[in-house]
Structures are given as C-alpha cells and as structure tokens.
Design a protein that fits this description.
about 650 residues; mainly beta; five-stranded mixed beta sheet; 2 helices; 61 strands; about 0% helix; about 45% strand; flat
C-alpha cells in the first residue's frame, strides 16, 4: 500500500497574506452584470459562472448576458411558457428552472430565450434573432418548456402549433427552419448526433397516426422508423421499425436485426449498440414473448428476461442484468461480454465500470450471503454496504461496509484493507482524479463524532477534520473529506487541533489559511498549478484567494444558492460571481506570478519550525480482505460459476 502523504499539525497561525505578500497579485477583470437594487432576476448557468440579468427600462424588458445588454422587448417569457414578471427585489435562479427567462447550455457557453414583440414571439440564440412567429402559435417542446438547446448549445429548437380544419398539429423548428407538420398532442422531439451536425425524429403525417415516418435534418427520410438513436461515432442512425415484413432494428434504413424490438442503447464510444427484443416461443408452443438482449444485431444466449444493459466507458464491453421470475433457474443473471453469471439477487443500483473498462463492480447475493462482485471474484461482506467508488482514471476501485451491531467495519481499496484499527469511516470515500490517492474521515469505534482523517492509509490523530462547503452554498451532498489536484500531487483538507479550536485549511499537511469556520470548497486548476479557495470572514463579505493571494473581496453570498458561482476555464483562470455595492459583477481571476509550489514554500518559511510537527500516524492493521468465494448457486449448463463483474456507485 502506498503512503505518499505525511499529515502535519500547526500549533500557531501565520496569516497567508503576510507570508505571501512578496508574490505578484493576480490580474482581475470585472464586468457589471446588473443592478441589485432595482429588482429583476439573475439566472446563473450550471457551469462556467455565466449569468444573465433580466431588467426593465420604462415599460420595456431586456436581457443582459455576462455584461452585454440585448435588445428591448414588450415582454420576456419564462421558459415554462408564462410571461416573466419583473420582481421588485432582485432574485437569483438557476438555468433550467421553469421561472427563469433564459436557458443556458450545459457548459454555460451558449444561451437562448423567448421574448414578445407586439403579437409575435421572438427567439434569441447567443444574442441573435433566429426566428419569430405569431405568439399564439408557440407551443411546448421537450422538458425545458418553450425552447430547448442541444447538449452543447449549438442549436435551439421550439414547436409551433398548426391548425388544419378540425385537426391540430405541431411542427418542429430548428434554428428557425420549419419542419413538416406532425399531427397529435405532442410536438416531435429531435435526437441529435454527437457533433450535432444532424438530427432525426419520428412523426405522424396524418391525424390517425398512420404511416409514422422519419425526418432527418428536416426532410422525409423515405422510410419508417421510430426511436432514432445515433451511434457514438456518428456512423449509423438506428431506428425501430414495426412495418410488416421489415420489423426490427434499421441501421441507416436497412434491416440489421429482424424481430420485435422495444428499446435501443448505444455505447458511449464507437459504433456498438444493443437492443431489447421480444423473443416469441417456438412454433406450436404456448407462452408469451420473452425479452432477450441483442448486441450489434446478434442475440445473446442466456440473456432471457433482460432488464437493462450498460456499456463500458471505451464502448467495447457490455453488461446486462436479467431476472428469471420462476422455474428452476429462478434468480438473477449478470451477463458480461456474452458470459452469464448467476446470483440469488443483484442490487437495484446500476453497476459501474472502472474508468479503463477493465472491471465491472456491483453488489448482490449468493447462497452464501451478500457479496461485492469485482471482475470474476466475489468478496463476501456483512452488514450494509455504505459506498462503492471508482476513480476518474485507471482501474482503481473501493468499497466501504459497516456492521454496527457487530461493530465491524471495512474500507477496501482494490484488494487491500486500509481501515486503521479502532476506527470506522464517517464520510464518503474519495479518490484523486488519477486514482493514485484517496481520503476519508473516521471516528473512534463506539463514539459518534468524527475525530481523524485518513489519507493514503495514514491516520492523523489529534487533527479533527471538517468538511468544505460547496461554492457559496450549504449543500451537504457536496461535502467531501479532501480535494486532490488533477495530477494527484496535492491534497487539501480542513482540520483543527486542540491548540487551534477553529478550522484551518491544510495543503499537503501545511496550514495555508488558519482559523476559519467558513472555508468554501477549494479548487485546483486543471493543470494542478493553482489553488483557489474562499472564506466568509464577516457577514455578507467573501474573500476569494488564489495561491494564497487575495483576489476578490465582495458579497459572494448574493449568489449563494447556485453552485456555479465559481468555476474555472481551461486556462486555469477563475470566474466568480458576487455583489459589489449596488451592482452584481462577474470577476475573472488570472494568476500572474504565483503557483501551488510557491504557496507551500512560503507557508513553510513563514511558520516557526517548532510549530509544525508531523502528526502521529497509525498504519492500517494487518487484516486481509476475505478471499473471493465461489458462487455456488446452480448455474445453467456451461455457465461459469466463479463470479460476476459490475460497477460502483
């Protein structure tokens, strides 16, 4: 087991602003994004710290995005469809909320909204008008409401209602280009390929829903197909056909699997696909159809009664869970790469592949009790499984179990037990992004409070850890025991000692910010060279630091309910939303002459040698993980009985 971190205790506090005063201050660019004393609504993107302000000028409405004001309109419309009402007190919404008057893309780099000019609706995409029409013709499309964006935000689409005599239809409009009229109550919803250069949807050109056909890029594809799905490499458009003589899965319009198909799945990478088909009983036999797994057009033996399927991250492997409700083979089967493995039960949570696709990890039960299945090994455990984890990279995995009645606990990383003696885990388990390091909190067995932190197997007694908050929020789900840099070199965590009852921010065992109880979720830059954090040092005031240098001091609590109040771009520059006096601002922070190594060096030089000592460390006990067992549940003929792969939550 690797032990690459030595925890340290600080017995005195050295202010980082004093220690690091010689370093160059970061470069700050700021834009006013709207007033906070004139009412209105601020809408924050889910990523990227982009923000739109909906304001009024006299009787006219406008939208200001990242400091750039758009055109004025008679009315702004909420995404849910009703008219936007300008509140007298400024509020903050997240993108995607129905009451928000603007919709951001997932990364915040694109946006769209709907306004009214006279009797017409107007759709604005990234500051430009892309379509308009009679206000009463605008309908609902997709889960977002009046408009929706493609995942990357490159395209915006909406629905227009069309009346033809007594029939009411809908037509999809993509980037202002109208498609054919589809009759029915629901507007067609498009599926885009992965680079968003093509889209497809099924529609009924007649009011009786006859001759359901396929539209590709706004035009009739010339064949019938439903439930369109593009493969990840964009080479193939898959559809389900129910046409007599051509029922099954179509690949670019050609029949590739004949049969009755209900569901399609595509791999996250490459061209592989899966389907759940209904297998009819043999000719002359009684019975009902049975769901069976189809991979790349071929039926998988032993996959009867399949429920769902999961592809590995590299798209080359797959796993599917099947359930037999009756008969001698009653129970569950996990099919992995065409090989079935039998279990008495399989947990309902989805399995997770390791990042390198080498292992599937899940939990289930055999005739010998509950097990964690890893690859072809089964590891028995007692009590409750409180967490399964996989790293963002590589083949690293871990699980945590607790049996409170027996006071028996375990933390297993790979095939090693890493829980020190006399303690039990009290927090979630986290890996560094590359999987080389890990951290979790512990408490003394028989006690309810958290009392120590374990990093890479080293337990620090005398350093009571705390939890960082998410950026400007109090979200408990975002609390983690430690934060690692992308390269795994650095670890940041919160802790206090008997000599310092308030919490301090530790970086690689050194105090870089002392005595604060409001430390906000620290963030390393993508290149691991810079380290950001924030503290609320007085009511309503937040100070943002980068590499120990003060960057911004403003009212970050104004946007506190939005996790995306702070974010980083690819260059490592930080973007921060906060109120400054009577206005809200978007700050961009670029480190100039500072980095994590300088922060650590300055912290070491500023602290007296006698004040910093290595924390007592207790190595993990010499307790081996129970060896894997053989799955003795009776298998089908020719079915391996060792164990099953799966994934972790």
């Amino acid at each position: 087991m690797k032990t690459s971190l030595r925890l340290a205790l600080a017995c005195s506090a050295i202010l980082p602003t004093f220690v690091l005063g010689a370093l160059a201050a970061p470069r700050i660019e700021e834009k006013i994004i709207g007033p906070i004393d004139q009412g209105g609504a601020f809408v924050v993107s889910l990523r990227g710290a982009h923000v739109a302000y909906a304001g009024v000028k006299g009787a006219r409405f406008y939208l200001n995005v990242d400091g750039a004001a758009g055109p004025e309109f008679d009315e702004l419309l909420k995404i849910s469809g009703s008219g936007y009402v300008h509140p007298q007190r400024a509020g903050v919404w997240r993108s995607g909320w129905g009451d928000a008057p603007v919709l951001f893309s997932a990364d915040g780099s694109h946006y769209a909204y709907v306004a009214r000019a006279g009797k017409e609706f107007v759709v604005i995409h990234d500051g430009k008008e892309v379509g308009r029409g009679p206000r009463l013709d605008l309908g609902q499309v997709g889960p977002a409401g009046l408009i929706d964006l493609t995942p990357s935000g490159k395209h915006v689409y909406w629905c227009e209602k069309v009346s033809d005599g007594g029939n009411v239809g809908n037509r999809l409009v993509v980037d202002g280009k109208r498609g054919p009229v589809a009759y029915g109550l629901v507007c067609p919803h498009p599926v885009f390929n992965h680079d968003e250069s093509h889209f497809a949807y099924a529609f009924a050109p007649a009011a009786n829903y006859a001759n359901v056909t396929l539209i590709i890029d706004g035009k009739d594809a010339g064949y019938r197909g439903q439930e369109p799905a593009y493969t990840a490499d964009d080479s193939t458009l898959l559809t389900i056909s129910n046409t007599e003589g051509k029922a099954g899965v179509l690949a670019n319009g050609k029949l590739t699997y004949p049969g009755s198909v209900t569901t399609l799945f595509t791999a996250p990478v490459g061209s592989r696909w899966a389907a759940i088909a209904q297998k009819l009983p043999p000719a002359g036999a009684f019975g009902v159809s049975t769901p069976i797994l189809v991979i790349d057009g071929k039926e998988v033996p032993g996959s009867e009664n399949v429920q769902s399927v999961w592809f590995s991250p590299n798209g080359r492997r797959y796993a599917a869970v099947c359930r037999n409700l009756s008969g001698p083979n009653r129970g569950f089967v996990m099919v992995v790469d065409s090989t079935p493995y039998r279990f008495a039960a399989i947990d309902s949570q989805p399995p997770y592949w390791t990042a390198d696709s080498s292992k599937l990890i899940f939990t289930g039960a055999t005739d010998r009790g509950t097990v964690v299945a890893v690859g072809e090994d089964l590891f028995p455990y007692q009590g409750a499984l409180s967490g399964l984890s996989v790293s963002d990279e590589g083949s690293h995995y871990a699980w945590v179990t607790a049996d409170n009645r027996r006071r028996s606990y375990a933390v297993v990383v790979g095939e090693d037990s890493v829980l020190p003696a006399g303690v039990y885990p009290t927090s979630k388990f986290v890996f560094s992004p590359d999987g080389s390091r890990y951290a979790y909190h512990t408490g003394l067995v028989g006690r309810s409070e958290t009392s120590a932190i374990v990093i890479d197997g080293n337990l620090s007694r005398g350093l009571v850890p705390g939890n960082f908050r998410a950026w400007m929020t109090d979200q408990l789900s975002a609390w983690v025991p430690a934060v690692f840099s992308a390269n795994g070199k650095h670890a940041a965590y919160l802790g206090r000692t008997a000599a310092s009852p308030k919490f301090s921010i530790y970086l690689d065992g050194r105090v870089v910010y002392p005595e604060t109880n409001t430390a906000v979720f620290p963030t390393f830059s993508p290149d691991s060279h810079h380290f950001y954090w924030a503290v609320q040092d007085e009511p309503g005031m937040t100070t943002l630091f980068v590499d120990g240098q003060t960057a911004v001091r403003a009212n970050g609590a104004f946007f506190r309910e939005n996790p995306a109040t702070f974010d980083l771009d690819a260059s490592g520059a930080g973007v921060f939303l906060a109120a400054d006096g009577a206005v809200a601002k978007r700050y961009r922070i670029t480190p100039v002459d500072s980095n994590v190594d300088q922060l650590l060096a300055a912290s070491n030089e500023g602290a007296p040698r006698a004040a910093v000592a290595a924390a007592p460390s207790v190595p993990p006990p010499a307790v081996a993980v129970p060896p894997p067992v053989v799955n003795t549940t009776a298998p089908r003929a020719g079915t391996p009985i060792a164990s099953a792969p799966s994934t972790a939550a």
